[in-house]
Amino acid sequence: MDTSEKPAVSDVASGPVAALGTRVELDLVDEVGGVESLALAIVPDEEADFGRGLLGVGTPLARAIVGQGAGATVDYRMGDVVAVRIRRVAAEGRVKDPGAAAVRASIVRRAVARAEMTNDLNFALAAGSKWGDYDPGKLPEELK
Fold it and tell me: What totals of helices (H) and strands (E) does the chain contain, helices first?
């Protein structure tokens, strides 16, 4: 969906609207009418963690629902999902979680360290290696 376009909306109800700092209960509707329910808090992108129910305000899903109230059905095409129905909008009242970005950075650091260790091990175990006795060193504690 072009980000400059406003998604088509139907059945908009009055009341609170989805915005930064709100909690929304959604139904993702697929092309055969199946429904998957989600409850998410809309947060600044740096705090986003979808697995923990924190939806970044800059994501396509958030951009589609921001400004819409409970009862709205918004066209939203992602995979087999064709629409999003907003069931409920409420103030989040959540304290900012400054640790989300740090947790993501830590996960990325561990993944990079693991990838580098894997490359070192592959090199060390390569048959016919010019340096057959290559020692990749000790495994970092976080990879054990």
Answer: 2, 6
* Run of H or E residues at 100: helix 99-125
Provide the residue-wise pLDDT of the chain in tens; the chain has 144 residues. Answer: 444 444 444 444 567 899 999 999 999 999 999 999 999 999 988 888 888 899 999 999 999 999 999 999 999 999 999 999 999 999 875 555 556 677 777 888 899 989 988 887 777 776 555 555 555 566 667 665
Read off φ and ψ for residue 26, nearest 5 degrees.
-125, 155
Long-range contacts, 52-56 (Cβ 8 Å, 24+): 52/100, 54/97, 54/100
